Amino acid sequence: MTSVQTTYKQVEEKHVSVEVEEMLWSPKFDLVAVSNVQGEVVLHRLSWQKVWVKSSPSENVKVKAMAWRSDGKVLAVGYSNGHVNLCYIENAEILHTFEVKGEITCMEWIAEMCPENMNNTSYPEDSNETYLAHLQPLNKSYGTLSKGNIEEVVEDGKKLKDQEELNLLLLGNSQKEIHVYAYGIFPVANITITDHDGLELKKMCSVMLSHDLSCLVVFLEMSKEENQVLEFHIVKLQTALLASRYKELRLLALKYGHISTLLGYLNSTIQQMSEAWEDILMEMDSKLRKFAEEKKRSGAGTVSNDFLELLLFGTPSTELQAFLLHELTNKSLKKLGHSIETSYSNIQKLVVKHLQSVAQAILYHLSDLNGMSMWYEKFGVLGLDLSRMQEAVMVAGSFVLKTSELQQVIDGSIKNFKAFFRWLYVVILRLSDEKPPPELSKMTQHDINFVAEFLKDNFTHFSAQEEDSIDFLHKDKKPGFKMEKVGQYLKKEDLSYPPELSGNPWIQYLQGSSHVNDSTVLYPTEKNKSLVQLQEKLEEVINKGLMKPSITVGKSVKVVSSLYLFSERDKSAHSFVDAPRITQLSIREQNKIYTVFTTKCLSREKFFIIRQQTDPSRFGEPAEAISVIVGDLGHLGSKDPNDSMGPEDPNDSKIPIGGR
């Protein structure tokens, strides 16, 4: 063998304050991702300028693996607790997060490489932008508790818009599973590696998928129960279904990306609605609750009775008059009314501009998936189930109906609130011997009805027998003021006061037409369910429907071969120096996967290269292996060129390798 003499010159040396565990160079930019013993991920430029730092998600959680997306814009970080975060390089924003069982042990992100004669028309494109309105960024001022952690650019929250070809995130865990995620977000395969030949799988050290998606190579650490010896194997798997349906999987992954982004937007919208609703009740509830508790202690009637008597007869009780003049007052009522009106306006905007738009967009994408599931030869074979997608469409339709119902409730509540506060403002002015403005002093029958509706909807009512029982009022722990009608939609419980729909002609038609009960076209009306309950149900059915392909594809994977490499004594905790170092590379032009590894038990001066065929028609060909001896990298010029590289003995070009 002809040896090539060369030297390596150290250009620069950098120091870090914390011990480094993993380093990964970006495939596109002058960036290096570094993880340390504190569980942090630090992004540096090659000049060692620090770009950002991502802290550990929790105490004692460490980074176990990292992988770059092929365009270098997203970094996947796998942790010891099974969590995986996809971080955007611009600002360290977590674009997506998911969890698998056990500890992450290895990770790789590969991109499918299409033949040169394949153009963009080979992929069917999603036309949702033609039919769906663009979602508006959420206004941070809607919720007073919002601190700006809201996605500003909602259309491409997962950064998938420029992804033309399919790419797959591969990860192995301590539960003997390999997970494959399209674009790092959509689970397309869940593969279980079983024990064989009396060997127990201890760790997955490395995974690699060929660029044509037809072959998966796994580097395994295995052991026998009766001894303390570790055996290292390479297992080759055939992924025929993954390779033959990559176009369909790409479409499913992009759909999942859209839906996942929309669900995050939906969650942020409902969160801001809840914050605005809490603002409404904060001061109102504190004032009226105090009055209600005083009424209960005195045993002199109820809050609702006092306000109804004031509305009907114009005469307040002694307690109510004191409350209006000294607790509520003219100025505080104005302030309270303005605050409530602003909060209601914010909720109304969130419902009309954001909630209904995102609900309709989710329904659109689920309807697309429902149609795709009917094409068994393309999508059904992947596990996309028609019945589950139909269920998801029905739940999404019910959610859209619930948003319309909530909008109507908000409109009615705003009218009632305004009428109640105008009336109460006039009452306080008259009790204070002040003349109310002429435009407020006149009340129509509609205004009286609105005030009565407000009292009915927002104050607890007792039966006549209960009101006569002072002991009951003392024992009852409920306040005299109950949550208003909008708030019940934002709780994880059934509606306390569902809307009255018996007079609705459409509802009457549905109740009298039993033949439409099982219709797949008419969305069911979930009368007693809250908005948050339907949101949780929607997320549940979506996950249930879109997790099935990963199981189906995973079961289709077949073992082609298993190669024994070497053995060493079991060490419960490998040091960085002792542990085998493995890297794998897929070469599309050669239809081969290269596995490179080093191990202390064979020789520190050697690394080994194994080459395997990835073309399914050539799976029967044996693997090829060589060993490479490396001399002193810093002083090669002072050594005999014949000793710098290459085996001294013909046997050194081989490593023990055999099929099992």
UniProtKB/TrEMBL annotation:
Q: Spell out the residue ranges making up region: Disordered.
A: 635-660
Which stretches make up the Anaphase-promoting complex subunit 4 long domain?
233-434
Keywords of this protein's UniProt record, alphabetized? Cell cycle, Cell division, Mitosis, Ubl conjugation pathway
Q: What is the lineage of its organism?
A: Eukaryota, Metazoa, Spiralia, Lophotrochozoa, Mollusca
Q: Keyword Zinc on this protein? A: no
Organism, as annotated: Sinanodonta woodiana
- What is the protein's given name? Anaphase-promoting complex subunit 4
User: Per the record's keyword annotation, is Membrane included, yes or no?
Assistant: no
Question: What InterPro entries is this protein classified in?
Answer: APC4, Apc4-like_WD40_dom, APC4_long_dom, WD40/YVTN_repeat-like_dom_sf, WD40_repeat_dom_sf
Q: Which GO terms describe its biological process?
A: cell division
The record's Pfam families line, in alphabetical order, gives:
ANAPC4, ANAPC4_WD40
- Quote the Gene3D superfamilies the UniProt record gives: YVTN repeat-like/Quinoprotein amine dehydrogenase
User: Can you give the residue ranges of the Anaphase-promoting complex subunit 4-like WD40 domain?
Assistant: 23-110
